[in-house]
Amino acid sequence: MPLTRRQFIHRSTLAAAGFTCSCCFSRLSADGISAAAAPGAARNAYFGRFTELPVGAIKAQGWIQQWLLRQADGLSGHPENLGYPYNTCMMAGAIPDPTIKQPADWWRYEQSGYYFDATARLNLLLDNPGIKQRHQAALDYILQHSNPLGYGANVTPWPNAVIGRGLLADYSATRDPAIAKLIRDYIVDHGRTHDRDGVNAEEAYYLYGVTGDPQLLAYAQRVYDDYTSPPSFCSIDKITGPQPLKSHGVTAAESLKILALTYLYTGNPQALDLTKRAYAKVIADNLMPDGGVVSSESLGPVAFNSLHETCDITDWCWSLGYALMATGDAAFADLIEKATFNALPGAVSKDFKQLQYFSSANQVLASSTACPRIALTRMSYRAAHETPCCSGNVNRAMPNYVARQWLRTDDGVTAALYGPCVLHTTVNDQPLSISEETDYPFRDTITFKVQTAQPATFALGLRIPGWCASATVAVNGIPANLACPPGAFAALKREFHDGDTVVLHLPMTVQLTDWLGGRGVSVQRGPLVYSLKIGEKRVESTTDPDAIKRILKGNNIAGFPALEFFPATEWRYGLDSGAKAAPEKFAVIESPLTDNPFLSDTAPVRIEVPLRNLPQWQATWQPVLDPPPANLKLSPQNPASLPGETELQQFGDLKTMTLVPYGSTYLRLTTLPVITERKSAPFAAKT
Ligand SMILES: [Zn+2]
Hints:
Blueprint: H1 5-16, H2 27-31, E1 58-60, H3 62-73, H4 107-125, H5 129-145, H6 157-174, H7 177-190, H8 201-211, H9 214-227, H10 236-240, H11 249-266, H12 269-286, E2 308-309, H13 310-327, H14 330-346, E3 358-359, H15 389-393, H16 397-403, E4 406-409, E5 412-415, E6 421-427, E7 430-437, E8 445-452, E9 456-464, E10 472-475, E11 478-479, E12 488-496, E13 501-505, E14 510-515, E15 520-525, E16 528-533, E17 536-541, H17 546-551, E18 562-567, E19 573-576, H18 577-580, E20 587-590, E21 605-613, E22 655-661, E23 668-669, E24 672-675
Parallel strand pairs: 5-9, 19-24
Antiparallel strand pairs: 1-6, 2-3, 4-5, 6-7, 7-8, 8-13, 9-12, 10-11, 10-13, 14-15, 15-16, 15-24, 16-22, 16-23, 17-18, 19-21, 20-21, 21-22
Helix pairs in contact: 1-12, 4-5, 4-6, 4-16, 6-7, 6-8, 7-8, 8-9, 8-11, 9-11, 11-12, 11-13, 12-13, 13-14, 13-16
The structure holds zinc ion.
């Protein structure tokens, strides 16, 4: 069964209180996965279950490689379409002042920093001359022109943490001492500890792990002390108190990881305890059906029309990765997969040329005026938005995922996040490769092929997702005698020979998750969430209206046009409680996988579900906007809530409807209203 939010809190609370049980965090040690060493040489300065590998050690294959290639052809390779500051030199020089004043001077370097980090990673994953040239020009400028207050021409503190991540990505691959000196000198001389400026501790801890430099450790620990003391949003009393954490969503993701990093590099038990409690709180209070976190712009309670900022999809996944490495809890990896396979593709156009600033699990309308936030572009799919952070940050999401698909332990390597890739690494100083051949998450079988010149003894760790109750492992075609409990890591320790093949089978069943007090459910099969695709009236614009032009002076909308989507089919459907009780009767239909599995017309997996029309739901809201209103500003906002009692009184006959992967939709209904027993007719699902 999938890990519900309540179960997650229960587990984390137990663990935080010092309890363990056979089904919780103690599994890791029971499985024999040992602790990991720091990314560099200072083994005694690392306390995590897992360690990151150098960026580039894991190369994407299959559909993930195709995704990255689309990135390179789309937003990542054509920043001139993204508006200011992406249409400037960015980190390859001093960014000229904006022609339209931005609210904060650090914006331009934050956003350029996101792009710099993304291209650093993409450059290590793809052989793309354009990405390489852009990244190398920026890296060269930063190394040759940095000033005491920051990297390159930047002199504002927080963006250094963002730019520094890109520098660390290069450093992890090259060990260039000039990069290490640059980061070290800035942090030791000028690193600040307050607010997001303290996120530079991420780089400080990594370098400390490599060099053992006590001044880097001292800075990072000052940040931890500052973050866990009032008035910080994640002070000890707020994390351990009863109230939800309140903060800007990106700030929360960036800040909470410092708790996990502090445990990773110091072993401070308080930091581990706070890590478990803080992330459990966010998951309990803010997790959305697609794996994203409510963030519009602040963390908030989950509602039918909750939104997440695309920056938050990227940054929560990155932040959860540190929680995974610190705690060894497989549930964090489950969440990273869920957000990456659902929330992320749902927020971008399928050719990666446009993105939303805000997206929703229940998105009946994706237009500039579709969300209650006062903003001109936020729910439309565009390359340039009036607040530009997400246009840079979205490029980091999939490269970040690839970087953590494999993690190192003291006695081997662990497949933490699944998908087609090749790992090149060393075990006991012996080079080896493991190719991971799979169409996961669209298929349930993963084949690992070991390539090694000499026999090698190591532990091959395998994550067993919380949703998979019947995982099996076979080695060279023979079933392995290996316990595979859901929500844990299994370890296959043996002498591996060249050509050895390990097949992991993760059977996927249709599972439902309650939302909004059980008044709605979402449908999941494996890590994929399935939505009712709403027919789209697509409106493409190659010129902006004057109001947007004034804000986005200089964006090349003709290159990557803006897209708005209006509902062209009825979307008001609900699920009988009888059907809810028998999801195993829903028909699962598989089709061949294409290079882009996030195209709804060729979706590799579809689920047929019996639904009923609810004609009274949002009766004042036109169910179909085809054609869209002439004045788009008059178009309604997305529906705010599930149907009320009165709206559930009238419903149509059962109709078999097809759900597709969330990420293949632009308009979708993901939280299906539940039509209670006393109102529903007998269930007659297709079998
Ligand atoms: Zn953003």
